[in-house]
């Protein structure tokens, strides 16, 4: 019988930390179901993404260890998804540790370590890119950003 | 018999344009082989990425339509890869149109349309994110960028 693992996330600007977490979750079972938060759901949380929902969903759906990606539209859908898809394990990154313990009455709940330092590594790499040859583009970008800031000030 | 399709790319900050191109290439045959340029090869072209080679390779290797991802280390490896993997079709985005016609003596060479406007769409989305609630972080970022610029000026 298939052991179904379920997780949810936004997966904006897909990176190696996302892939690591999805692969670790898949290793817990046989079938990985992923809820990808819609733009409307994110907006209700005051969160906006660089990549729109349709593209985030398609990228997650096209990762080898993911069996099915579905939209996540509201906080309360988890119990319904667990029942509908006969989920054995609900798993999230440990930045959510303890937050979903109430679901332990209907399945196993696990919190997995996130890949440390993905964001800061990227940022360091990004900063190392900024050398003399990029200074003109950077100045141009700053000009544009300053204009935007002025508009809001 | 398997029809092997080959392409090369950097695949920095994996996005929907990358996925679209890989899926269109896969549709041309049965087996998709992707050369991912190493950091050293990119450096030799004066190109630096945000995401390091190992992570770019792993993400491409974990896309469903990709059968095998290999390192691209130098310009001259194409003929060797075509022979070694019995490649039928060499395909690139049409931003490279005409650039690899010399390979027509050993396989079919195609140039496929890129997804228009992925970069500019992302940029527009990014700009739409910049509202009042983000203005403080933006100012902080500008401060950091200004400091970096001063260092080079």
Give your account of this protein's structure:
- 2 copies of one chain form a homodimer.
- Chain A starts with a strand and ends with a helix.
- In chain A, strands 3-2-1-4-5 form a 5-stranded parallel β-sheet, sandwiched between helices.
- In chain A, 41% of the residues lie in helices and 20% in strands.
- Chain A folds into 2 domains: 4-115, HUPs (Rossmann fold), CATH 3.40.50.620; 119-152, no CATH class.
- In chain A, strand 1, helix 1 and strand 2 form a beta-alpha-beta unit.
- Chain A has 6 helices and 5 strands.
- Chain A is elongated, with a radius of gyration of 19 Å.
- Chain A is α/β, with parallel strands linked by helices.
- Chain A binds chain B through residues 13-16, 19, 23, 46, 48-52, 55, 58-59, 62-65, 122, 125-133, 135, 138-139, 141-142, 145-146, 148-149, 152-153, and chain B through 13-16, 19, 23, 46, 48-52, 55, 58-59, 62-65, 122, 125-133, 135, 138-139, 141-142, 145-146, 148-149, 152-153.
